Amino acid sequence: MLENLNYSLFSLINATPDSASWMITLATFIAKDLINIVPLLAVALWLWGPRGQVSAQRQLVIKIAIALVVSLGVSWLMGNLFPHDRPFASHIGYNFLHHAADDSFPSDHGTVIFTFALAFLCWHRLWSGTLLMVLATAIAWSRVYLGVHWPLDMLGGLLAGAIGCLSALMIWQKFGAALYRSLQQGYRFCFALPIRKGWVRD
């Protein structure tokens, strides 16, 4: 039944040769490039921001990093336990994005962006988490639309992200303070010159 739902949703979303070329182009940009917001935003949060908020921002970045490590580990485990061919590898639907014919479940893109969005929902602001969740949904849609993933691959990524964030919270409660101090010291040592010049925050 779940597999039938997966197929039905895929057929509903997947683009066809009759789809507008601008939609294919937009979906390709979303599928390939929008994920770059993750490292860019993480770096920006660590290096810059209002002086009174930098500490909280850096703690958020560390929590996100922990969540990503856990969620990608969970994703790898799920993929090995429940391998699933990509739609084009099974000769189903239409493919508009070049991709290796490896296992599709769960989506790595989905895991990363949903982990990121859930982390902001849990530990930052409702508005930022909601905005990132909209972006995450757009990325999930685009990769199904272009034929490289099934809808349930994205649901698997969301589940892995939720497990990652929950695990990160528990790890942070035990080791967060010590981890933050260590990383802060390492950062101050490695970035001593940019900090002294005022290019980045202390």
UniProtKB/TrEMBL annotation:
Reaction equations catalysed: di-trans,octa-cis-undecaprenyl diphosphate + H2O = di-trans,octa-cis-undecaprenyl phosphate + phosphate + H(+)
GO-annotated molecular function: undecaprenyl-diphosphatase activity
Transmembrane stretches, start-end: 20-48, 60-78, 130-148, 154-172
Occurrences of domain Phosphatidic acid phosphatase type 2/haloperoxidase (ranges): 61-169
Keywords, alphabetical: Hydrolase, Membrane, Transmembrane, Transmembrane helix
A family per Pfam: PAP2
GO cellular component labels: plasma membrane
Domain of life where this protein originates: Bacteria
Gene3D superfamilies registered for this protein in UniProt: Phosphatidic acid phosphatase type 2/haloperoxidase (1.20.144.10)
SMART domains per record: acidPPc
EC number: 3.6.1.27
Cross-referenced SUPFAM superfamilies: Acid phosphatase/Vanadium-dependent haloperoxidase
Name of this protein: undecaprenyl-diphosphate phosphatase
Organism: Intestinirhabdus alba
Taxon lineage: Bacteria, Pseudomonadati, Pseudomonadota, Gammaproteobacteria, Enterobacterales
Name of the gene: ybjG
